[in-house]
Amino acid sequence: MENVAMNEFRRQVGEYINQTYYANKSFVLTKGQKRVAALVPIAILDRLSELESFYSQTLADRQQADASVDKISETDKETV
Asked: Which residues of 52-61 are buried (b: 16+ CB within 10 A; e: fewer)?
């Protein structure tokens, strides 16, 4: 991933978008030394969205499983 200063990006926004779309290049936009944004091909964004959904679902499943185990443990304690 190539770093690009914001002022450079503003001057040649069309060129950077073309490189992203046609050459599948990614760019990190910087302001001074600070990374402020990224320009990535849409395929990468789509994949990140899929991973985020998968992670959220996995977390929800784990929390549900943990709640079930806790409920079973409480029931076992009551029967003793």
From this structure: eeeeeeeeee
